[in-house]
Design goal:
The chain has 262 residues and is α/β, with parallel strands linked by helices. The protein has helices spanning 22-32, 47-55, 72-85, 114-142, 163-183, 209-219, 228-239, and strands at 10-14, 36-41, 64-66, 92-95, 145-151, 188-195, 250-253. It has one domain (10-257): NAD(P)-binding Rossmann-like Domain (Rossmann fold). Bound molecules: nicotinamide-adenine-dinucleotide.
């Protein structure tokens, strides 16, 4: 359906750890839509999984860069490598990254340590700003760009055990709005996809995650969980001109669950 929609465009995706990662679904969808992509992964332990994903794509010359987003020097280097590979331009940036210590994803939020709080905010929220800033010169070469990040309903409402990650997602969603306001004049759009629960490595860290999946299947208007490919197709939409009038938005891809009052 989206074949060729993103032909001639370049995208940089952060957050592939495993084939189950939402970033992997996004990579597959952007690839199918004809976008040339580069992938950043956190550590060398993930390189094999990243290479396996690349093996399933239609393009074989995919720049791969190791980048821990808590380190500005690594971010700078990652964009230098990708800028070089893509002729100095970029059209889309995908931020699909979050982290909190496991002990901060259960029990009481009031027990969160200062160190755990700062770590989660740094990696899950601040990194969007750091990556966007580094992408700007490349977007300017393209005449604009589309930035997207991944968030969850727990950043808007209290969801049991999501705790610190909910507070980090609230900061992330507000960062989307401030970045969108700042960068609109450079034709850079910034949006978030609020995905329904999907079983990934990170999601397993949230206590009682299987119960969240069950509740969603029973109660969401569409009476089912989402498919990762539905996040991927929304990413294609956000990277394309079909969404040219949309910025600062949080799009819920959650089978409608967020509209419920119960
Ligand atoms: P995942 O574990 O596959 O992806 C999380 C990614 O963050 C991994 O690639 C990990 O390496 C990366 N990361 C963590 N710390 C990093 C660091 N210091 N530097 C660079 N990368 C780092 O899990 P996922 O569910 O695909 O998560 C992707 C995004 O989607 C996250 O923002 C998550 O909060 C969000 N999200 C997930 C769900 C869900 O149910 N799975 C729902 C809504 C939103």
């Amino acid at each position: 359906m989206t074949n060729g929609l993103l032909q001639g465009r370049f995208g940089f995706i952060f957050g592939v750890a495993h084939k189950s990662s939402l970033a992997s679904a996004i990579a597959r969808s952007l690839d199918q839509a004809g976008m040339r992509i580069a992938l950043a992964y956190q550590s060398d332990r993930q390189l094999r999984n990243v290479e396996q994903l690349v093996g399933t794509l239609s393009q074989d010359d995919v720049p791969l860069v190791q980048c821990d987003v808590s380190d500005d020097a690594q971010i700078e280097k990652a964009f230098a490598v990708v800028g070089e590979a893509f002729g100095g331009r970029l059209d889309a940036l995908v931020h699909s990254i979050a982290f909190a210590n496991r002990e901060d994803l259960s029990g009481g939020f009031w027990e969160t340590s200062r160190q755990g709080y700062l770590l989660s905010q740094d990696i899950s929220a601040y990194s969007l700003t750091a990556l966007t800033r580094e992408a700007l010169p490349l977007f300017d070469e393209s005449g604009g760009g589309s930035v997207m990040t991944l968030t969850y309903l727990g950043g808007e409402r209290v969801i049991r055990n999501y705790n610190l990650m909910g507070v980090s997602k609230a900061a992330l969603e507000m960062s989307v709005r401030y970045l969108a306001a700042d960068l609109g004049s450079r034709n850079v759009r910034v949006n978030a996809i609020s995905a329904g629960p999907v079983k990934t490595l990170s999601a397993r860290g949230v206590a009682g995650f299987t119960g969240i999946l069950d509740t969603m299947r029973e109660q969401a208007p569409l009476r089912r969980n989402i498919e990762p490919s539905e996040v991927g197709s929304t990413a294609v939409f956000l990277a394309s001109d079909l969404s040219s009038g949309i910025t600062g938005e949080v799009i819920h891809v959650d089978a409608g669950y967020h509209i419920l009052g119960n």
